[in-house]
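Listing S7. Sequence submitted for prediction.
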Amino acid sequence: MFALIQWKLGRLQEEIKNKALQIIDRGNDLEHWEEDPKLKKKRETVLLQLKGQLNSPQPQAKKVPVLCRDIGNYIDLYNCVHFALMREKISWLF
């Protein structure tokens, strides 16, 4: 998830990218989906799409809102950046 946030901001660090790709390639996450083959297949598809996205050229670097820079945990960072990106997409409404 953190790799995707960095990619969306055009700031994906090589170390983070490599770690995310290792996790996807290992398939450890898919073990959690063993009980439901349909959901496991969907998860596998999503992870392959993410892998493709992480390997594709990043968008131009975006500014990171100041209030997002010093957040210590990934959930709050994700929420902060997600809100900032959504605000950017709908800024034409304001």
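Caption to Listing S7: primary sequence and predicted structure tokens for the chain studied. The radius of gyration is 15 Å. Residues 37-55 form the longest helix (19 residues).
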